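Structure in, sequence out. Go:
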């Protein structure tokens, strides 16, 4: 089982939409998928088929030590298991943050309770970084996808948080979302971001802007089904293929790594 944290350093990046789409696309590729909503905005369930914001979820397990978080699991029509964050008041949200601060391994311990096959994947859609949720997701992940639109303010925020993300995430990749090549400002922002990233961290994938995406969400459908030949659909499929290949490679690397640690030839 591998864990992928989907994070962002700015609001309005499309992170939750991307997390839900990737969960479905990986499930369609035969992967056992669990999607965790680790964001107090509590929106992932709405993208994965709930007709309202889930009243209970991970937050209730943080608020009550006797509450098991996995009792709030749902399964959508695509076979994706997902756990909402749950509705919280301002006071409850502060209590959740306090518990996470007191228990830096809370999420890691929760993930350890999952009984997924070796080829399974957990996608964690987390609150904007930095946050208690974001920090724990990054620390628990095998792969961190940082989503950013190619806008100057968002890219500047990402650059400012880059060192912290690099320290926390063993494997960090940048996903540029809502790309509109017709805008000169976006090209300039991408050039600035590429220069800041340097040779050690490439822009893994780019997903183009598509005005039909909100309409698909409103209908409860997926853009890659409604408009399979659109550029954004092609980008999402390409990103899912890239992750599927990464997961396969990570799986085959495990026996070799174990053998090296044991002093044997892989």
């Amino acid at each position: 089982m591998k864990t992928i944290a989907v994070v962002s350093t700015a609001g309005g990046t499309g992170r939750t939409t991307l997390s839900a789409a990737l969960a479905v696309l990986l499930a369609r590729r035969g992967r056992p998928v669990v999607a965790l909503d680790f964001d107090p905005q509590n929106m992932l369930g709405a993208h994965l088929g709930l007709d309202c914001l889930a009243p209970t979820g991970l937050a209730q397990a943080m608020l009550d030590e006797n509450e098991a978080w996995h009792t709030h699991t749902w399964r959508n029509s695509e076979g994706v298991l997902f756990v909402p964050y749950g509705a919280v008041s301002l006071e409850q949200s502060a209590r959740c943050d306090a518990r996470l601060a007191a228990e830096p391994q809370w999420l890691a311990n929760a993930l350890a309770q999952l009984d997924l096959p070796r080829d399974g994947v957990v996608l964690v859609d987390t609150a904007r970084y930095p946050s208690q949720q974001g920090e724990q997701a990054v620390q628990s992940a095998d792969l961190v996808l940082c989503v950013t639109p190619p806008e100057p303010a968002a890219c500047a925020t990402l650059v400012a948080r880059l060192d912290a993300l690099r320290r926390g995430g063993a494997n960090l990749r940048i996903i540029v979302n809502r790309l509109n090549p017709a805008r000169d400002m976006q090209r300039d922002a991408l050039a600035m971001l590429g220069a800041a990233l340097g040779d050690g961290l490439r822009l893994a994938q780019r997903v183009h802007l598509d005005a039909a995406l909100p309409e698909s969400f409103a209908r409860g459908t997926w853009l890659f089904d409604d408009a399979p030949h659109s550029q954004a659909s092609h980008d999402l499929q390409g990103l899912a293929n890239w992750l599927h290949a990464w997961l396969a490679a990570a799986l085959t690397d495990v026996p070799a790594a174990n053998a090296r640690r044991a002093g044997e030839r892989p």
